[in-house]
Structure formats: C-alpha cells, structure tokens
Amino acid sequence: MAPEISVIIPAYNEVDNVEPLAKELVDVLGAYGKPFEIVFVDDGSSDGTAERVLRLKDRFKQLRLVQMRRNFGQSSAMDAGFKHAEGKLLVPMDADLQNDPRDIPRMIAELGKGFDVVVGWRKHRKDPLMKKAFSRFANVLRKALVGDTIHDSGCTLKVIRREALDGVDLFGEVHRFIPAIVKMRGFRVTECVVNHRQRHKGKTKYGLGRVLRGFLDLLVVSFWMKYSTRPIQLFGRLGVLSTGLGVLAGLYLLYEKFISGLSIAGRPMLLLSVLLVVLGVQFILFGCLADLISKLMYRGAPPYTIKRLV
Question: E-strand spans in the chain?
C-alpha cells in the first residue's frame, strides 16, 4: 500500500541514534495502523550513518534512504526528504532522539480539526541554557519580522499536509520558518505541546554560526512574505523618500544662495543632497527591475493557492 504518513529525518553523523529511532517509530506507527514510511536523509555524514540505515532495511521494510553527496544543511536535507517522500502527511523530526515519536498520532489527530500544519511546542525543553536563550531571542525576532505567533517554530517535529508545501523550496535555515511560510500561503497552522527528551548520543550541530545564518534567512523570509510579488513597494518608497529629502536639501541650498547670498560651494549638505537624489533614483530603478524579475518568476506558478473549486 502507498504510505499515508512519511516521516522525514535529516541525519548528520547520527550513527548511534538511527537504529533506536527507527525501532521506536516502527513500534508507534505500526500500532497506529496507517501505512507509513521512514525516510532517512543522510546529509553527508562521515560516521557511517547511511550504511547503518541500509543495514536496518532487512529488519524494517518501511525504511528509505536519501543520501546527499555532501553536507548541505538541515533545510536542504529536509527539502530533499519532502520531495522524495510519498505520503500525504509529512512528518519531519530530528534524528537525535530528542523528539518523541509517541507525539505523532496525537498531532495527526489535531490536524483532523481542520488544520494543515501542526507544529510541536517543546514547552519543557531539555537543552542547555544558552541554546534555550538563543531560541527565545530568535522567537522574539521572528514574531517582530514575520508576525509568527507560534511559540516554538524551530521545533523540527511537525505534521504537514503535502499540499501546504507544494512549490516551496527550502534552503539555508528556512526550515525554521515553515509555519510562517505556509501561513502566508493561506494554510491553517496550529501547535501542540510535545515531549522533549535529552540527547544521550552524538553531538549537537547547534552553534553561533547557525544562529547568524538563521538571522539572515529570517530577513530573507520577512522580505519574501511582504514584498515578493511587488518589490517596487519597498524599493520605490525608499527611492521616493531619498529623492524627496535630496530635493528638499537642494531647495534649501538654492534659497541660501540666491535669497540670502551665501556661498554653498563645498558645503556638506550639497554633497548630501546629490547623494540622496542619486540613491533615490537607484532605489526606484532597482525596484522596477526586481518587479520585472518577480513577474517572470511567478509566470509558471501564481503567487496564490486555491483551496477548492466547486
């Protein structure tokens, strides 16, 4: 039978965790009674993670392996898993055993209440204090920039209807913003408190570099949500504001020269006026070019989603 549930697990150097995680998932989802598959995405591991998954296939027929040629990052690995999975429900989760598979049936039940995405909320996290502090700060930034009201958007464990991610490509650290992206596309998102367990094997991949990459991707997602279809609305406003300030400064200098009889040669305001006008024109031209590019990009895929045709 075709799988109804696809569990997608990006794994990078998690050789000691894949076997107990696979066994736990098979026990939980086997008792749930729906056809399922478990898709391990080996993200360029160097510790034999892919080989361990292949050895497990004799025991667990539901296992599949997607092996990346090198380490591309969690978002890319998750994107590859989504695109190669066959189930109607996509369930991403971490490979470090900190997500509890027993939460999956309860989250699927929550999905049945009319939602398209259910996000896990690690209300009682078992992580180091520094990691939790960075996550809380990231939550504040995310809410401010993209209006995301989910408490724990960074939790990998989610249940997602496939159609919510049709046409969506993940890159960088964008997997953290899946709830905001699908909500922007008109799908309904909710959250569910899930169990969070301590890591016992392997090493965390979380670090300051990942925090910086996540912040930069947050800026991209924020811009994409607000101006992807009409970038001229942002750059045009900046251009008009800059040009207007430059013109006002120039008019003031003309008043001082011809009415007050003062010399304006070499004054910093003259250079500032010219700079503002030049920047304003560049912003407007850049906005027009970005608008043309967005039109070409959306030519094959419209910037909207249709729920139903009657």
Answer: 5-11, 36-42, 63-67, 89-92, 117-121, 158-161, 189-193
Residues 51/79, Cβ–Cβ less than 8 Å: no
- DSSP state, 147? -
| C-alpha 29, offset from chain centre | 27
Pairing of strands 63-67, 89-92: unpaired
Average the pLDDT over 273-295 and give the result: 89
Nearest of 161, 194, 179 to residue 82 by alpha carbon:
161
d(CA 218, CA 11): 23
Q: Between the CA of residue 2 and those of 55, 86, 95, 189, 205, what are the distances in Å?
A: 23, 7, 24, 26, 34
Q: Residue 134: in which H helix or E strand, if any?
A: helix 129-146
E strand or H helix at 26: helix 18-32
Query: Does residue 39 sit in helix, strand or coil?
Result: strand
pLDDT of the residue at 300: 60
Give the pLDDT of residue 218.
74
Would you give the distance in Å from CA 37 to the centre of its chain? 24
Helix or strand (DSSP H, E) at 241: helix 232-258
Q: How far apart are CA 241 and CA 249, in angstroms?
A: 12
Q: CA 64, CA 50: separation in Å to the nearest integer?
A: 10
Amino acid code (one letter) for 162: R
